[in-house]
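It is time I had a proper look at our fold encoding. Can you supply me with one protein entry, sequence and fold together? It will help me judge whether the discrete encoding reads sensibly. Leave the record below and I will have a look:
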Amino acid sequence: MDALQTRFKARLLQERELLLQRIAAQRGGQVSRVEMAARHDIRAMESHARTITEMGEEFAMNEHETAELAAIDAALERIAAGQYGVCLECGVTIPEARLNAYPMALRCVSCQSAVEAPR
């Protein structure tokens, strides 16, 4: 593992830990989805509409955080496999500036732009 990969591995591990801490804090500690649902059931008697809105917001945040965590884990796996920083589409080295901006990047800017282009 070269110095660049070592640096990004440390950064990704730190971002992963911060994300897990944020998830735990938002849930009031290490609360499972089942426990969250049970809490909503209790509050359902108070205000059904408010409860539905809160549940939707929590599930949306959870989906975003789950996707972010998966992206971090995938980047760590690419580091372990020696494939980090290589575009999955064209195989060129992803510029360090792009990795600094988004360390979980899968593609170089050109390939990412092509993937995101409207069809």
